């Protein structure tokens, strides 16, 4: 099934570009990452059927779960959000059924001459993805194989969610958190309520958030529970009409129907000592009413 054991992992698991073709993990004929109950938008909000999606092995896909590594946001003249989301990843273990009927795959990314021109460190990233009937697990580990040299990095899962109406959705888990509002010159504020909404251009970095967020009124009126481990921060983003034109492959009609809720380590970089491994996890669950 895999014609090429290297894939572009700009979308974590849900949509694979293998041999220049989309490839989906599949649990059953009616349930796959290509729709994932139509809730997670993890197969992707961006497919070849989308109006302006770009699949050229160079442009990051605005959809799915892009991996942001080793740098978040602007990076001088280097790739925005780092290079991991546009690199070719090795398929270490192709998709296979587990004993309980889930589907599991393992991908790997290591440093190359191309990555070292931006970030001169040896590293390996291992991504394990498990897709079930009502959940999606994304485990990632960052290993420093150097015997002498430490390095610092940002890591974030830029998860996109499909929504019928973004203005009617709520996200819980933010009470008391300080946050940086990038739309207001990076001013810092405190979130007084547990629940937030997205009804305008939003680009906020929330620090030390709860381990669990619940997204209400997703597709089908259902909710999605996001459980994160070793990701202290949560970024919430929607370009709104204000900045949607800055994304050539994002149609202006799309912003009312998605937002990004992004688990990560971005407020403070992770420092990884020689020979050590950092691990983090995100689990998405469909909550049936």
Order of helices and strands: EEEEEEEEHEEEEEEEEEEHEE
**Residue windows where pLDDT falls under 50 for at least 5 positions:** 1-49
> Helicity, in percent?
under 10%
- Total strands: the figure is 20
Q: Specify the number of helices.
A: 2
Radius of gyration, in angstroms, nearest whole number: 18 Å
Number of domains: 1
Give the CA-CA distance, first to last residue: 37 Å
For the largest beta-sheet, the strand count, sense and barrel status come to: 8 strands, antiparallel
Mean pLDDT: 82
Roughly what fraction of the amino acids lie in strands? 35-45%
CATH class term: Mainly Beta
- Please identify the structural class as seen in this structure: mainly beta
CATH topology term: Beta-galactosidase, Chain A, domain 5
Strand order of the largest sheet: 1-7-8-9-10-20-17-16
GO biological process, one term: carbohydrate metabolic process
Protein name: glucose-6-phosphate 1-epimerase
Keywords: Isomerase
EC number: 5.1.3.15
SSE topology sketch:
Blueprint: E1 6-8, E2 16-18, E3 21-23, E4 26-28, E5 31-32, E6 67-68, E7 88-97, E8 103-110, H1 113-116, E9 124-131, E10 135-143, E11 151-157, E12 160-162, E13 178-181, E14 187-190, E15 202-206, E16 212-215, E17 223-229, E18 233-238, H2 240-243, E19 258-272, E20 277-287
Antiparallel strand pairs: 1-7, 2-3, 4-5, 6-11, 7-8, 8-9, 9-10, 10-20, 11-19, 12-19, 13-14, 13-15, 15-18, 16-17, 17-20, 18-19
GO molecular function: aldose 1-epimerase activity; carbohydrate binding; glucose-6-phosphate 1-epimerase activity
Pathway: Carbohydrate metabolism; galactose metabolism
Keywords: Isomerase
